[in-house]
Amino acid sequence: MNSLIDMLQQLVGMLPWEWAHYEFMQRALLAVLLAAPLFALVGTQVVWLRMAFFSDTLGHAALAGLALGVVAGLGKPLWAMIIWAVAMALMVTWVQRRSQEAADTVLGVFMAFSVALGIALLARNGRMKEFLNYLIGDVLSISAGGIAGMLLALIVVVALSFRWFNALALTGLNASLAGSRGVRVGAVQAGFAVIVAVVVTMVIPWVGLLLINAFLILPAATARLLARDTRQYVGLAIGLALVSGVGGLISSYYWGTATGATIVLWAVGFYSLALIYKPGRAAVAAATPGDSGG
After folding, report:
1. pLDDT per residue as tens digits for the range 154-192
2. Residue 46 to residues 4, 282, 283: CA-CA distances in angstroms?
3. What is the pLDDT of residues 231-287, one digit of tens each?
4. What are the counts of helices (DSSP H) followed by strands (DSSP E) for the chain?
5. Measured over all CA atoms, what is the biggest interatomic distance in the chain, rounded to whole angstroms?
6. Among 75, 43, 81, 79, CA closest to 60
7. In the chain, what percentage of residues exceed pLDDT 90?
8. How far is residue 158's CA from residue 165's CA, in Å, rounded to a whole number?
9. Please, which pLDDT band fits residue 75 given cuts at 50, 70 and 90?
10. Structural domains in the chain?
């Protein structure tokens, strides 16, 4: 895997621009090229299933996982963050189905608990300042191992998208109808919640806790404004995520701005343009239940 990444870095280094000659930019570009389609594929379903607030909750929940990993002496505990986020995703899904509370209420409770727990534990151990970079992320510091992990996540998500796409789409349209068609709605919802938890958490060190949900939601939300059918919806989301990611990365190099924030600003720009020109909104909007709430 490392040899493959080294070969890809060498190919990037052959580009004629100044920024492409730096190793940190080569790796950052590879990371963006993997993260963009990964987030676009997951984001289209997050928007479709009205889980925008859910994914944001998981992003903030990772702070508690980070703090618990620090207390356990794991250094920079990415695995602790992922395990905690997965546990939170399953717990939120279970509590929501059992209590019948409004989704935003349940998510608000879990978000408040996770953020408070994370801050309390980090502050008590005097480690708060040390991990502030997790709030804004730093894709320029990504390692070959991080790129390999992202590639593996992309392969898994692509495979699962082919397997679960119809079930997720039907669940998003009408859960009762999906159940009558033989879809195990609870299992599908829980499984997708775990996927969102893993994807969101593993990218936090490079995109940042404060921006992770924006990069997940914006390309999909923009595509939903423009697309005339489901195929266009997914394709546009991937394309917009790639352009925003690469454009934001290169712009941040020349402007001296934070890379994650610049990528999000590019995505916001595309969303703003889509609001002005949205000829196909009715087609996809009629087929999707909306993108608010959890």
Report:
1. 998 888 888 777 787 777 667 777 778 787 877 887 888
2. 31, 19, 18
3. 899 999 999 999 999 999 999 999 999 898 899 999 999 999 998 887 544 445 445
4. 13, 0
5. 58
6. 81
7. 24
8. 10
9. low
10. 2-10+23-211 (1.10.3470.10)
Q: 208: how many CB neighbours lie within 10 A of its CB?
A: 24
- Residue ranges in 184-229 assigned as alpha helix (H): 185-207, 212-226
CA 100 – CA 102 distance, rounded (Å): 7
- Hey, what are 127's tokens? 């480690």
Mean pLDDT lowest among 14-28, 42-56, 199-213, 277-291: 277-291
User: Cα–Cα distance between 113 and 122 in angstroms, integer?
Assistant: 14
C-alpha–C-alpha distance, residues 190 and 181, integer Å: 18
Nearest CA among 208, 270, 214, 262 for reference residue 239: 270
* Mean pLDDT of all residues in 29-44: 92
Q: Which residues contact 133 (CB under 8 A, 6 or more apart)?
A: 205
Tell me which long-range contacts 277-280 makes (C-beta under 8 A, separation of at least 24). Answer: 277/226, 278/225, 278/226, 279/226, 279/228, 280/226, 280/227, 280/228, 280/232
